[in-house]
């Protein structure tokens, strides 16, 4: 006796069904090159928004740059080193995320610098894309004491000024300076989101993407 199997076609135009099938078969793995909970949460929020449920891990990494990076070269290098080490730390990782905050010279500003968070996203092919948060100025005392080498990084001065221990792992300097209207989480989200733009629109970014080994040589 022949049995008849009824096959119910799946409508792949139904985005929710396709998304769920994809999630069951394959879940993206993202590794953040930092144990800072703000950076990890920002990564989770951004990747979930664009890609659905993802596995997000964090690892402690070491970079070759100073505790307080100054200049775009140092900040970019720190971000790339973090992203590359994160990607390399776990088998099967799809992306490594590196977030580095640093002072970028800006002529004509009060202190001469704006603080930016730079994000590097590195994939399995070791191609890197970059993004930045909005920039803001630290209080004058922060830059002056850094210039006199009284402290190793801006966070030390901000902790003294605000009384908030480990402010960089909480609201950040931006949280205090904006009366909590913007927090470090917001800046991290901005940086990660902008670093993903070429990956969300690869058809528009047809020039050759830089590789980690080229950037770090």
What would CATH call the architecture of the domain at 29-137 and 183-216?
Answer: Alpha-Beta Complex
Order of helices and strands: HEHEHEEEHHHHH
Give the quaternary arrangement of the chains.
single chain
Beta percentage is: 15-25%
**How far is the first residue's CA from the last residue's CA?**
70 Å
Tally the helices.
8
Helix content: 40-55%
The CATH topology of the domain at 29-137 and 183-216 comes to Maf protein
Mean residue pLDDT: 92
Rounded to an integer in angstroms, the radius of gyration calculated over CA atoms is 21 Å
Task: Please list the strands of the largest sheet in the order they lie side by side.
Answer: 2-1-3-4-5
Write down the overall geometry. globular
Largest sheet: 5 strands, mixed
Low-confidence stretches: 1-13
Structural class: alpha/beta
Tell how many strands the DSSP assignment holds: 5
CATH class category name of the domain at 29-137 and 183-216: Alpha Beta
How would you describe the overall organization of this protein?
The N terminus is likely disordered. A five-stranded mixed β-sheet has the order 2-1-3-4-5. The protein has a domain of 143 residues: Alpha-Beta Complex (Maf protein). The chain has eight helices and five strands. 41% of the residues lie in helices and 16% in strands. The protein has 217 residues and is α/β, with parallel strands linked by helices. It is globular.
